[in-house]
Amino acid sequence: MSDSAASAAAPGPAPEEVLAAAVELARAAAVDVAGDPAVVGEHLGTHVEPLADDADPALGVVLTHSFAAGLSGYLGWHWAVTLAVVPGDEHPTLDEVVLLPGDSALLAPAWVPWHERLRPGDLSVGDVLPSTEDDARLVPSYLADDDSAEDPAGRVVAEELGIGRERVLSVEGRREAAERWRESEFGPASAMARHAPGPCSTCGFYLPLAGSLRLSLGACSNGFSPADQRVVTADYGCGAHSQASLERTTGEPAEFVPTARYDTADFDVL
């Protein structure tokens, strides 16, 4: 066999080897995109990109070169240059050049919609917090079609019925509010409530809420109470209970006891 026939029969390098050897081609592409050779650092390695499950192997091989990034503020990032070998072609083809974060890269937090970022206390003077149409805490205040909020006749009916509002709290909205208030410092689990002489439900300064929350929640109207002007649970309590009075026994310190502060000796209590 002649030398020419032997060389023709000898297989060429595998596509993966051709792509892995094209380091300078990949670096030149990264420099062209970066615009400055100084920000394209050392070669970090290569990896073969996996093909899709339904891809034809005859389409070729795709390989990515990685180079350290020397950009300010991009610590832990790297340049990724993807090359491919087209079947029947011995020369690599450039696919794309991108700047990617590594495992140690500092990344911005994931974007969160504004209505999910809000926290209690974020609203300040002059701020406007619009409610969304799909707010699960609100429902139409009267039964009608879905577009009832934009119906002038529907608003007239609501006013005549004394509702006066297009939307009111839904069952979910009331439940969320009740749970939030119950878990606050004015709920039954607070230290103040555990040491109170009596619950708010028996206090004269307790103003029950209206509607379905009446039995479990109310407002405190005692100016000397730490809960004044606050929503409290019916089983909350504090030392400013309207029926708390001092009782002293000989040799014993005074203590609070829940008792009536008015004289019932001259009339019957019904």
Description:
- The protein has a 4-stranded antiparallel beta sheet. The chain has a 3-stranded antiparallel beta sheet with strand order 7-8-9.
- It is 20% helix and 22% strand.
- With 270 residues, the chain is α+β, with helices and mostly antiparallel strands.
- The chain has helices at 3-9, 15-20, 23-34, 114-117, 152-160, 171-182, 191-194; strands spanning 40-48, 61-69, 77-85, 93-101, 138-140, 167-169, 206-208, 217-220, 231-233, 244-247, 255-258.
- The protein contains 7 helices and 11 strands.
Count of distinct strands: 11
Helix content: 10-25%
H/E element string?
A: HHHEEEEHEHEHHEEEEE
Amino-to-carboxy terminus distance: 126 Å
Q: What share of residues are in beta strands?
A: 15-25%
Please tell me what the overall shape is: elongated
Which sequence of strands runs across the widest sheet? 1-2-3-4
Number of helices, where a helix is a run of at least 4 consecutive DSSP H or I residues: 7
Q: What is the arithmetic mean of pLDDT? A: 81
**Compute the gyration radius: what is it?**
38 Å
Largest sheet: 4 strands, antiparallel
Give the class from helix and strand content and strand pairing. Answer: alpha+beta
Poorly predicted runs of 5 or more residues: none
